Structures are given as C-alpha cells and as structure tokens.
Amino acid sequence: MSSLDWIVLVATLSFIVLYGVWKSRGKQNMESYFLGNQSMPWYIVLLSIIGTQASAITFISAPGQAYTDGMRFVQYYFGLPLAMVVLCITFVPIFHKLKVYTAYEFLEQRFDLKTRTLTAAIFLIQRGLSTGISICAPSIILSSLLGWNLYWTNLIMGGLLIIYTVAGGTRAVSYTQTLQLVVIFSGMFLAGWMVVHLLPADIGFKEALQVSGKMNKLNVIVTKFDWNDKYNIWSGLIGGFFLALSYFGTDQSQVGRYLSAKSVRESRLGLLMNGLVKVPMQFLILLIGALVFVFYLYFRAPLFFNEAQLQRVYATSHGPALRELENQYNTLSTAKQRQVKTLAAAMEKKEETAIATAKNALQATEDKAQQVRSEAVMLIKNADPTGDASDTNYIFLHFVVHNLPKGLVGLLIAIIFLAAWGSIAAALNSLASTTVVDVYKRLYKKEETPEKYMRMSRIWTLIWGIFCIAVAQFASSLGSLIEVVNVLGSWFYGVTLGIFLVAFYLKRIGGTATFCAAIGAEIIVLIMFWLDKVSWLWLNAIGCLLVIGFALILQPFVDRRLSK
Amino acid sequence: MSDKPLHEEKPPLFPTWNYWYVLVVAWLVLLIVLFYLFTKAFS
What we know:
The complex is a heterodimer of chains A (564) and B (43). Chain A is built from 21 helices and no strands. Chain A is an all-alpha fold. Chain A folds into two domains: 3-296 and 400-443 and 451-474, Up-down Bundle (Sodium/glucose cotransporter), CATH 1.20.1730; 307-387. In chain A, helix 10 (233-250) packs across helix 21, helix 17 packs across helix 18 and helix 20 (511-531) runs antiparallel to helix 21 (536-563). Chain B is mostly helical. Chain B has a domain at 13-42. Helices cover 60% and strands 0% of the residues of chain B. Chain B has one helix spanning 17-42. Classes of the chains: A mainly alpha (564), B mainly alpha (43). The interface between A and B is medium-sized, with 36 and 25 residues.
C-alpha cells in the first residue's frame, strides 16, 4: 500500500473510533447501555440492522462468489423480506410489550427458566465462536494479500471497536454503524464505477453486462430444484426464510438492534425497510463481482487469487508442476482476451451467428481455463493440506489492491475493517446483554445496584471482546472460515427458532415439552450434518420443524404425567 | 418507549400495517420477476 493509502486507512478508522467515543458521552444505566433508552428512529434501526448483518465477508466474499458462480447467490436473500413481515406481525409487538432487554427473557415468561437458560446458552456459544471467526476471516485475507502479521491484524480487527463498544453500548454501536455504512456504500459505489472505467474504451456498462451475461454470470434466477444446490429460488425462499426468521427473530445481536427503537412503529419500519432494500443491495454488490469477471476477461487473471498461498506451493516439490499449469493458464488468458474482443464486436454489430460462434469459442476457452484452475487447486491441496484451497474471498480484494488508484485502495481496505466492526460491535453488545440479563442478573445477583449492573455490563463487553479475539487467534487453522460460520449457525438457528415459534403460536405447549423437543431436535440436526445428506441451509428449516413436531408429540405425555 | 397501546401506532403513508406487509411482499415478487427477465435478457 502507498503512503496515501495508509493515511486514508488510518484517518478513516480513527475517525470512526473517535465518533463512537463521542457518541458514548453522558451518564448511562443498563437500559441506555443495552437498549439506547429505546430512543432510536427507524432509519438508525434500519442502518444498524444492515450494519450488523453485513460483515466484512459480505463485501469481500459476495463479489468473489459472483465471479466464480454468477449472481445466483442473491436468491439466498429472497426469504428475508417474508421473514421481516412475520417479525413485524408477531415478534416485535410481543418483545416491546413485555419490555424485555433480550429475546430470551420472553421465554421464561412464556415457558420456564430452564428453556430461557438453554436458549441463552446456545446463543452465547454460537455467537461467541462465530464472532471470533468473523474477526479472523477478513484478517487472514488482508494479512495474506498485504503481507501483514495475522495476530496484529486480528488485534486491530477485533480490538479497536472494543473502545467505543465498552464505553457507549448500543447507542455508540448504532450510530457508528450508520456512519460506517455511509463510508462503505460510497466506497463500493466507487469500486463498481472503477471496474467499468478500467475496461477498454469501447466497452461501457451495457457492453460489460452483455459479455457477463453471455458467460452465464448474470444467472440471478435459477428455478431448477435440487436438495444439494444451495442457491436456487426454492432454497432461497424457503431455507432463506427460516434462516432470516431465526437470525432476526432469535439472535440477540439483531433483536437488540430493533429493541432500541423508540416505538413498535419505528421497529417495524426499520425491519420492513430492510425487507425492501436488502435484496437490491446484495444484487448490486454481486453485480460488482460479475463486472470484475469481465475485467479479467480483458486483462490477465492470476491462476490463483491467493498469491501468498501460490508462492508457498512454488517453494515445494509441486512447484514445477504448478508453473506448468500457470503457463497453460496464461496462454488460455491470452486467447480469452482475443475472443472477448471478437464477441464484443459481434454484439455491437448485432450479428446473431457471429455472436453465437464467438460466445461458444470464448466459453470453450473459459471451460479449459477453469479445468486448469481446478487442477491447480488440487495440486495446492496436495502440497498444503491445511491451507485454504478456495480463492473466492481473495478475488475482489486482489482486484482492488492491484488495479485501483492510490487512496481508493486505502479506502476499500478501511471498508473491510468498518464492515467487520459493525457486526462485531453489535455481537459484543448482545453477548454482554445476554450474559448480564439472562445469566448474571437472573441466576446469580438479582438485587444489585444499577451502578453495579452497569459496571458488569461494561466488564462483560470487554471480556467477550477479549474472548472473541482469542478465538480469532486460534481459528486460522479451521480451513474455510465462511463455511465454518455458516455451518455453526445452521446447527443452532433452526432449533432456537423452533422454540420461539412454539412460544408464539402453540399456546397449549409448555416449557418441559419444548425443552425436551429442543434437545432431541438438536441431536438430530447434528447427526444429519454428520451424515452430510442435505445442504446446511436446509438444517435451519429441519431443526425448526423438528422442535415443533416433537413438542406437539411430547406435550400429551407431559400433561398425563402432571395429572398423575 | 411510547406508552401508547399497540393498536394506536399508525403506520406512515397507509391506514394499516397490512398495506405495508403487502407492499414488501409485492416488492419481492416484482424483484423476482425483474431478475428473471434480467437473467433471460442477458443469457
């Protein structure tokens, strides 16, 4: 990175930390620390919800996903607007009416203490581990691309935000997320504009879309159903609905965002607006990846975008074989550069036969290039079995670092930090609120002074921050971290959602039946994952339906036992 | 938080929240149709 990039990076991060600290001023109690005195307008709630969901990986991984697999990943978000409607009808009014700090408090009022504690414990385990991984995942990519020390990158990725999260609680988190998103969207818009700007002079936005479409990268809708296919319209609508409902309805990192709204009206508006903007937002982020693909048709793409990993393999006995594959790949890249120009010329003249011929030739070369890349990936796996053999998450940042002008590179790197901070800060705040409200205050110290609870809230935010950084320092050896986060979520989200749906909709079912159903469902979900028969996205729906089904079956037995 | 009963919290623009829910679902349907046409147009 150039000096200008460093100045932009340090200035942006420092400004956000100072802004967060400034927003933390004033006397606080537990209500202001965890709920922001329930004073937030809907647009702050909206931006806070988006900032919590959109982690660094969203901005790093989604363009890479579009580059390798096309834009069909957007279907993953189709269930989200439907989930927002269900949340507004059921979850939001009840949470506000009961004036709860955490979603799990409601479960004691509806069921019993053991069900509340079980659900809070599931959340603490899942969110604590996945937040650690959320720190580590972008750190690994940045340290690999820029040659930074991983441990220091982890410390900055997960450490600086602790300053304002500990000091200001949910208010500081929400307001910094708002500012962070302004910077993030400005930077992503500039990056998207630069991709098109860097293409040859005769290729504009429309031509780039046409080329991308011809290469099947604009495959937004896939209607064919397949249990093992993660991204089609059916898995997106059904699996995505259950995932979004469990994430937004039962994960305290999101529930805490809309509980900070000043009324039910503001909570609902924030969530419904999220339902309106989320799918188009993801579409635009993915579109950048589809355009980056076109860029790398005109300019040579590396054989493997994680170049540090490539260099490690070059140093082994597999090095010569990898060189040979790279030579083949470069020859194919040169052919692609020629063929894409032929295709663009044919499209400009609107000659259908010439378009079909040029497209087939380019697709055939691209298929050969992908085959060479697959062989290289296999070779990398053999040479370094513990290394990350997927380079999807390196594609966009590789483009940024090697092609964008000075200053903009620094801004895009800052965006990765800010996106990470937004979701990590909300997670730390929610982990602390659940620990203090559902464990410390409920189980151990029921009658402390407000000052003591406030002090414990800050201490637990700090403890969770340190814990998550510690997880991050060990997580680098877990392989593909994005997959680990998703899998971790799919183990628990469905079961947690099932508990809440029983609570809301099946009034005659009690705590004992629900508790036993949740334990049974969790065991089956883990067995199904171990057997590897369905995609992880479906585990959310399966876990949820199992809890509901088991609870309905068990309740008559519990009733009979009680009547005896 | 406002102490008003929940049913008094009127939404902006529309008389009831149901209109908002229909708007969100209709927007999703419209997006899916537009994305389908987008996929077909550029494939």
